[in-house]
């Protein structure tokens, strides 16, 4: 089973160099696909158990954490942009999953909470 910490595997130093060369979409896809399938299965299991209101939280600006900034450097930016770009790709796919769940599971309300924008100080787009 894939967990949150597994998502960080693409940011190991060697793979970060690969990420600078190849499309972030291409690198993130296998991890996101496995994560999305597992998350979809978990949400459907909760639905079968009677859950009807579920909030799913997107990832925040992981590239702005002190650890990532110290580990990879920022190249003059305020954060590690390549990590934040990958987070945004992940969050966009999570939003799509939430839309799919809302369309396929009648009577259920799935909410996407945009923690990325909350961290940027833009509460209006948080989805709450």
Automatic annotation (TrEMBL):
Q: Name one GO biological process term.
A: lipid catabolic process
Q: Is-annotated flag, keyword Lipid metabolism? A: yes
Cellular component terms per the entry's GO annotation = extracellular region
Q: What is this protein called?
A: GDSL esterase/lipase
Q: Which UniProt keywords apply?
A: Hydrolase, Lipid degradation, Lipid metabolism, Secreted, Signal
Which Pfam families does the record associate with it? Lipase_GDSL (PF00657)
| Localization per Swiss-Prot or TrEMBL | Secreted
Entry GO MF terms: hydrolase activity, acting on ester bonds
| Species of origin | Quercus lobata
Q: Which domain of life is it from?
A: Eukaryota
Q: Give the record's family classification.
A: Belongs to the 'GDSL' lipolytic enzyme family.
């Amino acid at each position: 089973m894939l967990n949150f910490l597994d998502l960080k595997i693409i940011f190991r130093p060697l793979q970060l160099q690969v990420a600078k060369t190849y499309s972030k979409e291409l690198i993130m896809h296998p991890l996101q696909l496995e994560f999305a399938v597992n998350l979809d299965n978990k949400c459907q299991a909760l639905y079968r158990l009677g859950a009807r209101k579920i909030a799913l939280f997107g990832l925040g600006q992981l590239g702005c954490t002190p650890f990532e900034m110290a580990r990879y450097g920022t190249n003059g930016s305020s954060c590690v942009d390549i990590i934040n770009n990958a987070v945004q790709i992940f969050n966009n796919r999570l939003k799509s999953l939430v839309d799919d769940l809302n369309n396929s599971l009648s009577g259920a309300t799935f909410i996407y909470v945009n923690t990325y924008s909350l961290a940027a100080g833009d509460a209006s787009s948080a989805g709450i």
